[in-house]
Amino acid sequence: MKCRYFGRCGGCYFNLPYPEQLRLKRQGLEEILPPGWPDFRLIRSERVRGYRSRQDLVYAFGKLGLRRRGSYRHVTDLESCWLMPERANQQLRVIRERIFDLESYDYIRHRGYLRYVTFRSTAFTQELMIIFLTAKRDPRIRKLMKAVEAESVVWSVNQGLADVNFGEVREWIGRPWIEERLDAYRFRIGPNCFFQSNPWIARKLFRYLRKLARGISAERIIDLYSGIGCIAVYLSSLAPVMAVESNPESVEYGRINTQLNSCQIEWVQKDVKEWLKEPGEAGLAVLDPPRSGLGGKVLRRLKRWGPESILYISCNPERAVGEILELDYEVQEIRAFDMFPQTPHLEAVFLLSR
User: pTM to 2 decimals?
Assistant: First the structure.
């Protein structure tokens, strides 16, 4: 069954049976791995639709949806999205009945009012956060906020010229966070905190990382780019963990999640490249950088630091492979996870040792 927006909307790239998607993804990863590297398993997602924990819909030129594929200047108006859970789609319909009374934001000419509507959903607690991002502090958005039903309804403001989907939290209805449960662990997620796009596959990913870390038996674990602490919490029963994260809101929720799960995690709010100037000893370093990768300065300092083992998690395996080749490590194991069904992207884990 084909999505009626496929080919116009930039959300999905595949209109193929799921086994064929997996075949193409496996082939794509095989093509970028150097000769002699280990073979890998590709872990399939339990959900191929309605799996996204976050979807950012742009409100521009009188349309609410996603940018047209290959075009920054055009928006495809969406009444629903197959990637979002049904509850989020229900609230999208409520919003569409009322949103067109509000001025949309022209991100080309930098004028207007409402920029984004973001839906953040949890898979295992069935909670929903709706974020309205405006370009002005004008409180007209309050009427629409009261019309929707969610555990968390947030009004954020970003008055800058850059086209970004986050801002300063001004007000909320309900509470300013939602809570997900993965296995026995609880994780609170704030409006501007990163969380994996697919909770079903994230749970398998975190279990796998814990299995690998248990086999390493490190006396100290450093979790770099820690976010709200999901990986740190999963590994905290194995050894003392230090979590390094630059985003203040993520560190705040990371500390909350440490308490919720009765863990012993030391939190450091600092940019990774700054922390790596004086890193201290560690048997295992966990790296989960943004899609852009580590960058040259972090790579050089990481190489100088030289922890015994590294777990490198990447949503951009081609970039990760290039960076791993610059380090003096042997690739012991690789595993891929289909974090993003209906797209060509996947998440890969590389276990490195000296």
Answer: 0.96
